[in-house]
Amino acid sequence: MSPVLVRLAFRNVFRNRKRSIITFLSISLGLAALVFGQGLMLGIGNESMKNIIDYQTAHLTISPPGYLDMKETSLSPSVPDYPEILNSLERLPHVEGATARIVVPAVLNDGMNDLPCLASGVDVQTDGHVFRLADVVAEGRYLQGQRLEMVVGTRLAGQFAARPGDRLNVIMQDRGGEIEVQSLEVAGLVDTGNPTVDRGSLFIPLGVMQRALGMEGQATEVAVRLRRASDVGAGRAAIASFLAAEGLDLDVSEWTELAGDFLRLHRLKKRAFGVMTGVIVLLAAVGIVNTMLMASFERTREMGMMMAMGMKARTVLILFLLEGAVLGLFGGLAGGLLGGAATYYTEVHGIDIGAMYGDIDIGYPIRDVLRGDLTVGTLIGTLCFGVVVSVLASLYPAWRASKLVPSEALRHV
Amino acid sequence: MQRKDQIVKLEDVSKEYRVGRIAVPAIRGITLSIDAGAFLSIAGPSGSGKTTLLNLIGCIDRPTAGSVYLEGTEISALPSSRLAEIRSSSLGFIFQTFNLVPVLSALENVEFPLVISGTMGGRERRRRAQEMLEEVGLADLMGRRPNELSGGQQQRIAVARALVKQPAIVLADEPTANLDSGTGGSILELMREMNERRGTTFLFSTHDRMVMEYARRLILLRDGRIERDDGEVS
Taking the first listed entry, what is the main subcellular location of this protein, grouped into a coarse class (chain A) (predicted)? Predict the structure, then answer.
């Protein structure tokens, strides 16, 4: 392809400045929306996943076979000899920390009202190696030692208007099927931004839980944090082979299995967002078709002249497609800059959803501030997408121009 | 058969255009031969078939009946891509409204036919275009765009563009119609000079008497037929 042809395509695009600017605007605004939306979805997705891992699932969970199906029932089987497993896990590759928990369904009661929730017995010494609950205490303090106390999700506590220092009853079923009522002082309230935790979880020292349920020396699961989230596959394999070598009949589950509902919903939202931006980009593409058709009408005689000079139909087609590509390239650059700047702003400053929506659940486990995530991949992808859409939108006008008959085109007024 | 020095030959050529269901004849059974190096004017009133005849010779249009030979090759039945190649290699065109590309400079406009033919590299192309502009006396305006040039200058650029690839034939459709008589005369002088210096065959259509006087051979068309052919005048 001759550089002259490329130069010609560039200059032709700027021939009708007003029209080109309007077309650029429509492409760039469409693509800016795409970059911004994608960045926001990516940021929200990443932030949500981090939240789920930090406060809800950890990276990996070691549990007895069938635990995932029976979780949240009081008949959950338990992990035997968990202290030995914890010791060994720390030496395995990829593992940053591990902790044992007992997770059972419970009812929280203030003497008047009941609310169902999930009670977790947490090892105060090691839980912080895996979970980040201690960092998100909104009121009061985190658990200390084996006191008869608990920390409660802010929204759950809010239902009882409970504050640190208040006492609430936790009703659970022990291994023998007997109802156990523990009157515990609220040590603190945790605000994770994760509705599952904030609205429906409370945390009790593991020893207190073990004694209450008659599960001394037992846990229902061992949660594992890895050094990097991307190590999940390798970490799981290393742990599974260690468990097999020790002859322990335990399953290892990834956080994606435990947060399957969230991930499915997130995928669905991403798809819905894709359809929405697809419509925006389609509208921009209609603008490109219009611009290129106008150009092909206006330049009919010029095309006739070029064809009379021997320019082949294929070259005419290429020239118009190049013009479409130039429109897409500039639109993509402008859209990338605009959308990138907006996304970067949200990445640095965030969007304070607390201030905007108050206590309304936005459907994502995120603490107060939404942050976009701007990646080079999104920018390059958008630029390529802009060029491809523009070239596709130019196909018909280009084909029409290439089908001109020189003698008729030269007569065109 | 076509004689060696005959560059164009038409045998009983007709051309009809269809307007709806009606066939409108533009050329009716023309037989004609043109020698290489001719400086020939096709004259006649509007609608007499001048442009159609030029288009047939210029491989821009195909005859409805008859045969057109160009440098010994029968072109009527050739595929469009081959006709485009012939136009690119052997023919130069000058148009009534100059038809320069407005976004290209004078130099780039002259260079453009060489870009289309794709036969030479950028540097050589540029050198040839510069030489051509010097020949038409516009070397110092080579960076200007068409809208920065007068009508006469634009048509000079068009002449340079038609000649830059050294075609065997240059076809000019009413080349002076949009110019005042003085400028038109200088364009005709330029064309004649190129014809004499380079031996390029020039065929031009006109209904301007001054242009007819410049021609060494004059063919008068009326209603798609040759009314008069003066033959070659030295």
Answer: membrane
pTM above 0.80, yes or no: no
Which of B169, B166, B171, B168 shows the shortest CA–CA distance to B124?
A: B166
Answer whether B103 sits within 8 Å of A15, measured CB to CB: yes
What is the distance between the alpha carbons of residues A296 and A15, in angstroms, rounded to a whole number?
Answer: 12
The answer to whether residues A133 and A271 belong to one domain is no
Does A67 score more than 80 pLDDT?
A: no
CB of B81 within 8 Å of a chain A CB? The answer is: yes
Q: What is the ipTM of this complex?
A: 0.89
Question: Where do we find the tokens 């009708």?
Answer: A16
- DSSP H/E element including B12: strand B6-19
Residue to mutate among A8, A319, A410, with most B CBs inside 10 A, is A410
Record: contact A309-B87, CB cut-off 8 A: yes
In the predicted structure, residue A245 carries a pLDDT above the cut 60: yes
The pLDDT confidence band at residue B234, using thresholds 50, 70 and 90, is very low
Tell whether A268 and A157 lie within a shared domain.
no
Any CB–CB contact under 8 A between A2 and chain B? yes
Residue A59 — pLDDT band, cuts 50, 70, 90? Answer: very high
User: What mean pLDDT is reported for chain B?
Assistant: 90
Q: Based on the structure, what is the number of domains in chain A? A: 2
